[in-house]
Amino acid sequence: MNRLLALQKIIETGSFTKAAQELGYTQSSISQTVASLETEFNIKLLNRSRTGVSLTNDGKKIYPRFLELIRQYEETQVIANQINGLETGTVKIGAINSISRYWLPGLIKGFEASHPNIHFTLYQGNFDEVRDYILSGKVDIGFLKPPYTKDLKTHPLKDEKMLAIIPANHPLRQQKTTSLEKLFATSDNIILIPEGSHSSVLNAFHQVNLYPKIKDKIQDDYTVMSMVEAGLGISFISELMKKDCPFDIHFLKTTPIIRHSINLAYKNESSLSTASKRFIRYIESQRTKLI
User: Fold this and answer.
1) Residues 263 and 144: beta-carbon distance below 8 Å
2) What are phi and psi of 168, to 5 degrees?
3) Of 108, 145, 159, 169, residue with least CA distance to 264
4) Residue 162's beta-bridge partner residues?
5) Which of 92, 114, 190, 258 could anchor a disulfide with 233, C-beta 3.0 to 4.6 Å?
6) Are 257 and 159 within 8 A, CB to CB?
7) Percent of the residues in the chain that have a pLDDT greater than 90, as a whole number
């Protein structure tokens, strides 16, 4: 099992050196571990290059099986700990910036109050990356918008409100609420779109027969806010990001309100650890408290 865990860490870090450091091994022992796996299965598992380590085509076929063996082993450990009066496990989560910053700390703190021996690993990314994390088995659960949940099991969590963000010198800077028509007319029709919010924003404009120019699609919320601050356009962002905003920008409510739904997603029930299933139940119990 240690060989599979070592391989998993290499894939997660993209490096033999980093994997060895995190596991407390020497680099040569990590290399020998992978070599013994490749010999046992008569398959070359990894490619090495200047940019890092990646799975070979054959490796991609067999690696999900290794992940399933790791999951089963971890579940066996959990059962053994339960027999001995302990509740343990690890929940691996994928989330975008705003959710990992504003939802997860409270959820994890509340859950740990009654499950102190369950631990968490968080992987941040955009919606495409979080979906890939779920499908590859890198994470157990992720927070996704509906367009990204095809072929996944989901639990609806919250309809999240989006706010317009404009530069500090924008003509509407004194307003608290504005119509999409007025925003369109005063912003040179240019919008920077955070990746993952594209369809929600465009649909809202199209419903009032407006067709803005999409200048850029940007993955990171903070990059979006920074570019708006620099006067490169306007944008729309989760109202969660208004809290403690470090940029000199102005937030506006819009009419109509633009919303997008956030779902909790996972591959299937059998892919979930006991710890993950319990965390999902806890999140659902806290839905009405999510800000």
Assistant:
1) yes
2) -65, -25
3) 145
4) 238, 258
5) 190
6) no
7) 30
Residue 229 pLDDT exceeds 70: yes
For 128, list phi and psi in degrees, rounded to 5.
Answer: -60, -45
| pLDDT digits 0-9 by tens, 164-176 | 999 999 999 999 9
Please confirm whether the linkage preceding 167 is cis (ω < 30° from 0): no
Question: Which range (39-43, 87-91, 221-225) has the least confidence?
Answer: 87-91
CATH architecture, domain defined by 1-85: Orthogonal Bundle (1.10)
Cβ neighbours of residue 245 closer than 8 Å, sequence gap 6 or more: 225, 251
* pLDDT band at 27; cut points 50, 70, 90: confident
What is residue 257's DSSP assignment? P
CA-closest candidate to residue 17, choices 36, 30, 5, 34: 30
How far apart are the C-alpha atoms of 228 and 83, rounded to whole Å?
56
CA distances from 275 to 23, 60, 210, 255 (A): 23, 27, 47, 42
* Mutual angle of helices 274-285 and 104-114, in 10-degree steps: 110
Structure tokens at 215: 């200048």
**131 token code pair:** 């979906």
- Locate the domains of the chain by residue range: 1-85, 158-260
Q: How far is CA 239 from the centre of its chain?
A: 18
Return the residue matching tokens 């082993």: 73
Q: DSSP per residue over 29-79, as a string?
A: HHHHHHHHHHHHHT---EEEETTEEEE-HHHHHHHHHHHHHHHHHHHHHHH
**3-class SS of residue 22:** helix
- CATH 3.40.190.10 correct for 158-260: yes
